# Entry
Amino acid sequence: MIIRQIKLNNFRQFKDRCTIDFSTDKTNNVTVVMGDNGAGKTTLEQAFTWCMYGSTNFAIQELINRDVRESMISGDIAVVSVELLVNYNNHEYSIMRKQRFEKKTTRVEKISNDIFLVKEQNSNGEFIPLPDIKGVATVREFMPEELSAFFFFDGERLEHMSKELLEHKRSDNFKGAVRGLVGLTAMLEAIEHLGKPGRKSGVIGQFDSLIDNAGNSNLSEIAGVIDNLMSKQENLKKQIDDWSDEEARYSDDMISFQAELKNMQEDINRRREFERLQALIQSEEKEKVKDRQALYNYFAKHSFGYLILPLLEEALGEIKTADKLDKGIPHIHADTIKFLLERGTCICGSKICNGDEATKHLEALMQTLPPYSIGNMIGQFANQARSLAVRETDFYEQMKQKTQAYQKHDAVINNAIDQRDDLEKFADKEKVNSIKIKLSTAKNALSRLRNDIINAKTECSRINDKVKYLENQRKEIRKTYSKNKQNMVYLEYAKVIWEQLKTTYDEKEEEVRLELEARINKIFENIYDGGIQISVDERYNIITNIVTDSGDYMSDLEKNTAQSYAIIFAFIAGIIEMAKNNNKDETNDGFPLVMDAPLSAFDKERIKRICTVLPTIAEQVIIFIKDTDGDIAEKYMDSIIGKKWLIKKHSKTVSSLEER
Amino acid sequence: MRKMNGGLTMDDEMKIEVDEQIVKSIMAMIILAEKRNLRLPVTQRKTRTQMEHQIYQEIIRQVPKE
Amino acid sequence: MFDKQIIFTGKHAEYLRKLAKGSSKDDSEWVFQSNYEVLLIAPVIGFIYNRSAKAERDAGIKDNNIFLEAINRVRNDLEFTYRILMILHKKNDLSTEERLNRAFRYDRNDEKRKSGDEVFWGYVLGGIEVLYEKFIEESHGKDELVQNIYEFVESFQMTKINDFDQDSVIKLCKQAGI
# Structure
């Protein structure tokens, strides 16, 4: 089926008449409808299903454009309609649903039920209305209602299903799809209506109570007990399912907590390292100060002996060349001579008189004696020089060493600072503790859940046993009532029918489920190069596995919205493919796909892939995107876009449509 | 002929035998009735109770009387 | 000689203050703990770097005294320095006799010693200037100072010392017969 056009009249935000022509080109089969959130994308998406099936998920009052509604005065009548022009099996059809509203004094109410009209174009080009039942049937033919949800995939459903995948909830969507594809809805309904052996409801239950009522009151009692037990069991099974889901979630949580903890542990090690470096820096700084002080002290104390070294040799040379080196007589001072002169007698006893030879000699001698003589002093000087020459021979080496030792500290410090600066972030001890607490909470919850599940399962099987026992009893008692025989025959037929239908249906459902699973995985190969696999179990839990390069399976889906959307695309594509296949006996144009596509949530690679896959599966693709995603669409989908539209929001209550 | 005992272990004193043809016939009627109902728009369909009753009647009508 | 306190004035007083206390407020960590340490090496440095300076007066700068107790600590070496500088100063211009007299004979004769003293103190001030330039002015921060001290020693080692042979000194001493 191909949709050519949708015409809206007062349908929610779309005041008065609005029309979109869709691309029907074989190659450029994509129509892009752009609009911001709130402009009317979802509304438009839902217009399709309202038109075709009358189903909505908004209240009837909200069907009619608010402006129109509010401007109605008592007695006014307004009309809401959506018309689709489609091509199916080379015939043109018009499908229209119309609802009239009347303003009664205070409220606007709908006037009777909506009108559903399907017209078929004849060879003259005229549109001839089909009788009601035929119309309905025709629509159901080219778009089965159970599957319509997947061909008209609006934003809310997309989000919902994405959540299902990310939170490991059981997918009702998947289940619905499979059931729709199985197509045996009538069978399903029959099974439902027949009831279930042991339950009081349904046809089987009715026969049961018929039998019980005809006879023994015990029987009704037993029937009641059995019914309760089975109902209890059903609840337990549901509970087990829910708990299992929760278990899976806790397991996931634990894995991610542990990973987080591991990261933080590394952070803690980094913090230890950081602190070590800090301590090193501080101790080196202290050492540096000490070394500096030592260097200063050394210099202050020893530099003299060193600095004077160059002068020593020269000075001694000078002394050596001196003529006069009065040595004088040891240990005699000039004062001694003065004394002798004054006393007039020499040491040897000779007389000394003023003016005589002795006196002159002594006076001359006096000049060579200290403090007048310098010979001793020179001698002392030379001694000092000699001792100075060796005093500080070490000085240069020492200074060199001390300076190097001092500067080495800087090297160590700078290196440490450098390393320390690299360790920028590190975890809080508090954060680590809080994760540890969460981890242990999850662990406890997990073990409690597992316990609960085990208990529940045990309980279920106990109930089974009990029910069997009671059924036995029942049969025994019933045997005794012959007038019940007829009823028991009825019952038996009902049970047999139920069982055959159930077995058949379950087989078929499993077949379809597995096939859908296989198709989706095949499509994944195109989108993800086989990097992701999904599997769907009987409870419709969807498990995504990431296949690593070595071919191993790795659990699980990253909590990645973009990835879940891609999975949903594959899922829808799989459904479309299968639906196409199911209808192979009829000439089938295939199906259109109308969906919400949050392009900006995707990675570019995925968009490219999906853009190549989808148009090959659906005959016609109508995607709704955000205004701001327009350039992404253009970039990757340009070669397949046939038409572009924009939903313009004029006000809270009014939007309109414009071709781009 | 098929023996159905619901999988219970019991003395085979009372085994009710069913006629497979009649089973098929009843089944067919039930399915047709369900399909007819599903063709109707949701708002106009029969209720569960009504459907159950219809099936119930069908069984009584077709099962051979002793 | 060196028997009374020594007073520094003008900029040299300031230099000395800075050298012996450091230019930072932190005076616990400085090369020279006290003035006399500077006094000890200043003349040698002045002579070796051929720097001589005159005392200045500046009303705005407080005088800097080195007291006798301090001087006594380095008296021996100071006297030695005096003598050696007298021996070597203006070697080519003054006679050996003149220089030796200056170095050794006028210890107690202030008058005769005047010209020698002038030379000596000139070197002291010059040496203070050199030290100030190298240690204070050119050092911004403790690490630079350490480096400057080292370079001072390095260059001294290379230029003044490396020809020096201490054996020859000893030989010379022995030669002097003492």
